[in-house]
Structure prediction request, 225 residues.
Amino acid sequence: GENVEQHPSTLSVQEGDSAVIKCTYSDSASNYFPWYKQELGKRPQLIIDIRSNVGEKKDQRIAVTLNKTAKHFSLHITETQPEDSAVYFCAASILPGNQFYFGTGTSLTVIP
Amino acid sequence: EAQVTQNPRYLITVTGKKLTVTCSQNMNHEYMSWYRQDPGLGLRQIYYSMNVEVTDKGDVPEGYKVSRKEKRNFPLILESPSPNQTSLYFCASSRRQGSETQYFGPGTRLLVL
Prediction:
């Protein structure tokens, strides 16, 4: 099956700085890559996703990039704010997207 | 209010005592899925369902059963729970496919002694 690796496991940044979280996947057939944010004690929530026919996608301060050749994708958060502090999970799936494989999570702390 | 609900939210049980965790959504979603979350392992998919009477195994289905007799409900059954099934369980649903936004339930924290 698919294997998704996520790095780093913890990340601390100063408010206003950028944060980057990276994931690699093993199955070249994977073509859908969502990112989830989970605040402490809460449920995961989808924040952005990308499909393999696109190299980059942005939504305000959040962007995701995908390198199909290298089989890795990254989450970029710019101008970080304390409310960005959470655990972030990447995932990989094959469209139409029924079976999902998640990374182990990155705990992001934004220091005011 | 559109939502995914799970019951119970917390459960302490003993090895071998059958239990069911219920999941219900009121959004008429076709896709539903169960995940478990463990420290250092992230989320792992147990089972998913693409519609009524259609279920399939995820990455870690051993020791679990599911059923989808109605569109709104997707219970997770542990026939003979073991301590290694102690975990935080999430149910999720999406409109038609998992690649559409998945809405997660609040989670069920299970401790098997």
User: Anything to note?
Assistant: Chain A has no helices and eleven strands. The interface with chain B takes residues 1, 6, 32, 34, 36, 43-46, 49, 51, 89, 91, 93, 95-105 of chain A (CB under 8 Å). The CA atoms of residues 24 and 70 of chain A lie 8 Å apart. Chain A has a mean pLDDT of 95.
